[in-house]
């Protein structure tokens, strides 16, 4: 999975007494992590947040899918969960645009199911989520 990382200046982090949650940005259809890099990542990293923009399977510099379909809501949400499990030490805020917002909604639904089933937290806890012009749960605009 391609990830663009922009972290807060370590010297600035030492000056603050609080720890901000990491931010994970999920792009919409026909985009990749680059769409967050020009404005969003610099703004939030300069505001004290470690930022991670991910490219979903088959997008940007991420791996090509094995089949003709790059993934489903479930597989994309699972990829985000795997990224969080492997790379982050504290619960992040997920930010998703368009189709990325629908993926985040799927993640949250899986998070609640994970808690109900007590399956060992396949979907890590979140600090929050933000949906930017998101596709609604029905998939229709």
TrEMBL record:
Residues 1-20 are annotated as: Disordered. It comes from the Eukaryota. Pfam families: Abhydrolase_6. InterPro entries: AB_hydrolase_1 (IPR000073), AB_hydrolase_fold (IPR029058). One of its GO terms (molecular function) is lysophosphatidic acid acyltransferase activity. Residues 1-18 have a biased composition (Basic and acidic residues). Signal peptide: none annotated. This is AB hydrolase-1 domain-containing protein. It comes from Morus notabilis. The lineage of its organism: Eukaryota, Viridiplantae, Streptophyta, Embryophyta, Tracheophyta.
């Amino acid at each position: 999975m391609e990830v663009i990382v922009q972290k807060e200046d370590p010297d600035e982090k030492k000056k603050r007494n609080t720890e901000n949650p990491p931010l994970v940005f999920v792009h919409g259809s026909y985009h990749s992590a680059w769409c967050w890099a020009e404005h969003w990542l610099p703004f939030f990293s300069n505001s004290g947040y470690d930022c991670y923009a991910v490219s979903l399977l088959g997008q940007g510099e991420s791996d090509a899918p094995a089949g003709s379909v790059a993934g489903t809501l479930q597989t994309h949400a699972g990829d985000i969960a795997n990224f969080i499990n492997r790379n982050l030490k504290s619960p992040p805020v997920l930010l998703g645009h368009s189709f990325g917002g629908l993926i985040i909604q799927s993640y949250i639904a899986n998070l609640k199911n994970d808690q109900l089933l007590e399956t060992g937290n396949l979907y890590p806890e979140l600090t929050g989520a933000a949906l930017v012009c998101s596709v609604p749960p029905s998939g229709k605009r």
